[in-house]
Amino acid sequence: MRIVTSTITTTATATATTTAMGTAMTTDAALYRLLAWTSPAYPVGAFSYSHGLEWAVEAGQVRDVDGAVAYIAAVLERGGGWVDAVLFAATHRVAGDPAELDGLADLAAAFRASSETALESRQQGQAFLTVTRRAWPHPLLDEFARRRAGLPVAHCTAMAVACAAHGIALEPALHAYLHGIASNLVSAAVRLVPLGQTDGQIATARLGQAVAAVGRAALAADIDELGTAAPGLELCSLAHETQYTRLFRS
Fold first, then answer.
1. Residue 127 backbone zone (phi > 0: left; psi -120 to 50: alpha; other: beta)
2. Phi and psi of 213, rounded to 5°?
3. Could you say which DSSP state residue 46 is in?
4. Is the bond into 194 cis (omega within 30 degrees of 0)?
5. pLDDT tens digits, residue range 77-124?
6. Is there a contact between 232 and 73 (Cβ–Cβ < 8 Å)?
């Protein structure tokens, strides 16, 4: 399956763009949904996961803002964030094709190296799908949920389908999703290291380049070559499973 890079054009508010699902909504409406869906207030339980960061802090691998930025950048560039970004883009493009969509949904749900990161992705995915169907209903989401009943759904899959269904263009949707990953891990670092609130915002600002670069690369990626190269992250996740005192579920 070859992923073709798409070019998204945005102008002033109330200007429409085009996606694989047809004509996108006005920029204001799309932006409102993205802000809602990636807000810490959206009830997907993101606050309870650290993607192995809790063990990295316990082991002394992350001690300050520099260490937190390096860890989170690794998640985005070489770990689960990269995998999710490529699968998000691919899913958004085929959201109207049930066979293609279900194949990618299976891959996204399985593409985890530890039980805790699998839980992290699947729990947030199911929660996102459930609440979005109630608050932002769409027939495509209902159809997808019926087909996936009893099967795990990755967070990247659920949000990509929702964005495509509601006509939100791929490029800003993917950028928002990656920002959500980064900001949630920064929030975890603020509590764990601990970092002050100012250092937390410094970390968020410094991660902006990584978010943008990963988004651009994911849009051009070939899903047949998808893989990761972050064994340090996976070891942190595996060690977290038996960590004596834990605040987070991953």
1. alpha
2. -65, -40
3. G
4. yes
5. 999 999 999 999 999 999 999 999 999 999 999 999 899 999 999 999
6. no
- Is residue 75 helix, strand or coil? helix
Neighbours of 61 (CB within 10 A): 15
Mean pLDDT over 33-55 rounds to: 95
Q: Which fold has domain 63-240?
A: Urease accessory protein UreF (1.10.4190)
How far is it, in rounded angstroms, from Cα 170 to Cα 176?
Answer: 10
Is the pLDDT reported for residue 58 higher than 60? yes
For the chain, what are the domain ranges?
63-240
| Helix intervals (H) in the chain | 27-37, 53-58, 65-78, 80-93, 98-110, 115-135, 139-147, 155-165, 170-192, 197-206, 208-220, 231-240
Alpha-carbon dihedral angle through residues 226, 250, 240, 206, given to the nearest 10 degrees: 70
- The two structure tokens encoding residue 106: 């299976």
CA distance 86 to 107: 11
Longest dimension (CA), the chain: 53
